[in-house]
Amino acid sequence: MAPAASALERLTARLIAADPPRAKSLCVSLLGDAMEPHGGAIWLGDLIALLQPLGINERLLRTSVFRLVAEGWLHAERHGRRSLYRLSAQGARHTSHAAQRIYQASEPAWNGEWTLVVIPRTNNGLAERAELRRALEWEGYGMVAPGVFAHPRGQPDAAGGILESLGIADKAVVLAGRDLPGVGALPLAALASQCWNLGELADQYREFIHQFTPLEKTLNGQDRVAPPAAAAFAARMLLLHRWRRIVLHDPRLPADMLAPDWPGHPARALCRSLYWGLFDASEAHLQTIAGHGDGHFRPLAADALRRFGGR
User: Fold this and answer.
1) Could you give the 3-state DSSP secondary structure of residue 273?
2) 57, 276, 198, 207 alpha-carbon torsion, rounded to 10°
3) Phi, psi for 262 (deg, rounded to 5)
């Protein structure tokens, strides 16, 4: 085994041992990152071959895929004795929505406007309240007062979509607002530390940097060589999986609301550097395993090359 392969595989093995990925969640990461740009379809046997090096055995993977089908993420097709799985329309929507946050190069400038979701007092007994709160918090909203959720970058149509999906579009109000200048009142941004657990999020970013900086040193060492394909794919999946777990819980607050040394910025730069450092070799491995020339595995979509702002 070449030294570069040994170093990369040892590092990946240590990361897996320290925090073993869950089969279902890792499967979603692989489908969104690796398979969606190639058409979103994969044979079960290929999926097993791609994830076994990451500690996911066949039994766990079969159970995970079955659950993803039951939850509407995947559509299953039988071809003789083989099973082909592809992203469903719902799975493709979820993947596309998450990709906007996962692969964003940097946060755009903020215009000072907030999106507010308000549950009127007449709906205090709203049965869907807990589910609504979970959905809004996943979208990055913080609760600034009982029944009032706010986000400085929230998209009103996304908030409306959440209400519609829960069947309560007529039971909540979606508003746009901003601080009034010259009033002398507390700015809404001052509530950031109360509405979002930024300390825990910052710790997660620091841990990401701590975990993956050795990978950057391995890829960019003095005797820099292209990483071996199989090892590069495993490292790319683990990198993207860990990044996805953190960034999808980041409310994406404007820079003015964050500490000057906010660790999310260097963490994103590190992820971008590693992702492109692994990309070509990992794609070669993916082609070897899944590119059977049967029409289901399509050429890489151009959008994939614009991830993290492109190379």
Assistant:
1) helix
2) 60
3) -55, 120
- pLDDT (0 to 100) of residue 223: 55
DSSP 142-192: EEEETTEEEETT--HHHHHHHHHHTT-TTS-EEEEE-PPTTS-PPPGGGGH
**Taking CA 240 as the corner, what is the angle to CA 253 and CA 27, rounded to the nearest 5 degrees?**
115
CB 74 within 8 A of CB 91: yes
> Please, are residues 237 and 34 in contact by the beta-carbon 8 Å criterion?
yes
Taking a C-beta distance cutoff of 8 angstroms, is the pair 58, 66 a contact? no
Q: Are 152 and 110 in contact (CB under 8 A)?
A: yes
Domain segments of the chain: what residues?
113-178
Tokens of 113: 């406007």
DSSP state for residue 20 in the 8-state scheme: P
- Residue 174 near residue 163, CB atoms below 8 Å: yes
pLDDT tens-place string over residues 258-307: 988 999 999 999 999 999 999 999 999 999 999 987 889 999 999 999 99
Provide the edge-to-edge strand list for the sheet that holds 82-87. 41-43, 82-87, 74-79
Among 159, 248, 153, 158, which residue's Cα sits nearest to residue 204? 248
